[in-house]
Task: inverse folding
């Protein structure tokens, strides 16, 4: 039987049933071999791709854990209210045992406010400059060797740092404000959705990191608080993280473990966030909270936006990961002064 | 002697199409621009958004203009680019002017000119960027400022100026740049 005859015998399906035994024709065999080769190539390619990513991540330096074992009062998060943002900061820090409980003499301290937009303080799109300045002063008073303030803005950083008032306030308080355009970006070992993204280099050198976000509305995640503020240390490609934002925000909270979180609710942006613009969207709350439980700070921040912790998917996700508690009742309110 | 065949209707149609094609090619070339200013403006519009030179705004220096397109805007405003793109952003040019301030203090102004696909896009972006207390600027139609930021729209282009350093002379510097820019845009 010639090959042509065999092919003809197998028919369209390419498999002939003769005497109960399936026989594979030449065409069918070629088809199956091609399919197997394609599948093999796909698997090998995928393995090589992910192996490459894993290798790159493993080679990169780890993100330090900046937490300290606070020897202060039992409450992990304190909140203060009043018309003077600097005074609110001083009160919550005092309740936590003072900045000396967190910053050692000679430390390089990095303060990470939210300076995402070229908006005025009254528009509440950025951290209040008085809050940032008071934290800088507290770090300097505690003996910090150097205090740097940095953020990778969403808008032009020169404009953002100028319009927000943060450059002038932080420099006057004794900090060096890093020029975002000059920051060297370096790889860091970050698992999860942000794998492969770079961070600005001073972050990895800092002995202590203080996260100072503003509480405000966000169109995708409903709110942006402390953990979302870590977007501002990430380099090119961070926009992709918005695709699964609740999971990503919690992942960032697990990677970046600050010495202290200070949430600014001097003014909160209740709509059209994160950029805002209209003063109609801004509510003066006059409050600040600080603590060593970033999830509890997050829950308190949500409450300032009239949201429950359960309204924000990333808070539940972070709590499930063991990053902190979300019961706002655990926050010690110091009252108004 | 053989007679030439008479033209058929299809031949007439082909000749008519050929004539139409010739007219379509030649007619635009016959248009003239009597005003050299029109030619200049047409050339500028084709070149993209522009910023006036430092010498024309009274500045002592200006950084080299940096140009951005749709694919590179996020390199400079990663996170803010989305709104620009949704408003029909086409391209931008950015620079920082330096002015000798009073008492030797330097005044810096960030300047950016954005080109949008349509004038509506430029107006929408200007509205989104406007400071809360921006007021119209005298002598500059389509411009608004709060003294530290100035926004102006001309056609499809948006000019945004921001004083980067506190100090005297900010509003005057903004007005000088905006006025020179406005003149370059033409009527």
Result:
């Amino acid at each position: 039987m010639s090959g042509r005859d065999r092919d003809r015998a197998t028919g369209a399906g390419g498999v002939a049933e003769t005497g109960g035994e399936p026989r594979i024709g030449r065409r069918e065999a070629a088809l199956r071999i091609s399919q197997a080769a394609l599948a093999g190539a796909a698997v090998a390619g995928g393995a090589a791709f992910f192996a490459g990513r894993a290798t790159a991540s493993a080679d990169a330096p780890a993100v330090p854990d900046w937490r300290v074992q606070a020897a202060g009062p039992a409450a992990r998060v304190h909140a203060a209210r009043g018309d003077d943002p600097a005074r609110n900061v001083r009160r919550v820090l005092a309740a936590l045992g003072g900045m000396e409980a967190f910053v050692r003499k000679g430390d390089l301290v990095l303060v990470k406010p939210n300076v995402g937009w070229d908006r005025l303080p009254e528009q509440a799109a950025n951290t209040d400059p008085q809050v940032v300045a008071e934290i800088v002063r507290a770090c300097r008073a505690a003996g910090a060797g150097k205090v740097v303030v940095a953020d990778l803005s969403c808008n032009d950083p020169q404009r953002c740092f100028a319009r927000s008032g943060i450059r002038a306030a932080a420099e006057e308080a004794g900090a060096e404000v890093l020029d975002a355009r000059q920051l060297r970006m370096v790889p860091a070992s970050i698992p999860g959705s942000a794998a492969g993204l770079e961070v600005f280099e001073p972050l990895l050198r800092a002995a202590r990191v203080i996260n100072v976000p503003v509480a405000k509305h966000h169109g995708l995640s409903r709110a942006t608080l402390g953990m979302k503020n870590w977007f501002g240390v990430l380099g090119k490609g961070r926009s992709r993280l918005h695709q699964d934002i609740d999971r990503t925000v919690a992942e960032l909270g697990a990677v970046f473990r600050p010495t202290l979180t200070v949430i600014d609710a001097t003014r909160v942006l209740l709509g059209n966030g994160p950029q805002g613009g209209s003063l109609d969207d801004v509510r003066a709350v006059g409050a600040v909270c600080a603590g060593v439980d970033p999830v509890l700070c997050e829950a308190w921040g949500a409450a300032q936006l009239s949201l429950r912790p359960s309204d924000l998917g990333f808070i539940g996700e972070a709590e499930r990961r063991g990053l902190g508690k979300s019961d706002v009742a655990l926050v010690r309110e110091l009252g108004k002064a | 002697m053989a007679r030439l065949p008479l033209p058929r209707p299809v031949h007439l149609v082909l000749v008519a199409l050929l004539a139409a094609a010739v007219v379509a090619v030649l007619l635009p070339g016959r248009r003239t621009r009597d005003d050299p200013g029109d030619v200049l403006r047409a050339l500028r519009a084709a070149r993209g958004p522009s910023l006036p030179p430092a010498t024309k705004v009274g500045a002592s220096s200006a950084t080299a203009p940096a140009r951005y397109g749709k694919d590179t805007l996020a390199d400079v405003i990663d996170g803010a680019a989305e709104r620009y793109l949704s408003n029909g952003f086409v391209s931008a040019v950015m620079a920082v002017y330096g002015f000798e301030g009073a008492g030797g203090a330097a005044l810096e102004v960030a300047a950016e000119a954005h080109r949008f696909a349509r004038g509506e896009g430029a107006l929408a972006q200007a509205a989104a960027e406007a400071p809360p207390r921006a007021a119209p600027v005298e002598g500059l139609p389509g411009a608004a400022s709060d003294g530290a930021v100035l926004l102006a729209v001309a056609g499809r282009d948006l000019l945004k100026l921001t004083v980067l350093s506190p100090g005297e002379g900010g509003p005057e510097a903004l007005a000088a740049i905006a006025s020179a820019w406005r003149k370059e845009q033409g009527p």
The longest strand of chain A covers residues 260-269. Confidence is low (pLDDT under 50) at residues 1-20, 48-56 of chain A.
